[in-house]
Design a protein that fits this description.
With 80 residues, the chain is an all-alpha fold. The protein has helices at 2-25, 28-64, 67-75. It contains 3 helices and no strands. The chain is rod-shaped.
Amino acid sequence: MSIILAIVVLLGFWALRLMEQAFQRQEFSRMLAGTLVATAAGGLLTCYSLMSDILRLLLYLQAHSSSYAQDLLSDLSWLD
């Protein structure tokens, strides 16, 4: 988690730096690049959050080993 958070923070700083340079030099391309970097940071954080919740649910189901959990995990056996 800390590595992902560090990457997102660094991407955020990079995006702000690109946008600041774009504002000073009146360059549209740097502003667009800063927006894309900020969007990528948000997307990375969103994907990590969603995958974290899904994996937590799967581990919970595996630990309680109900019949529904076994069916669900057998369908996802290709992940191993």
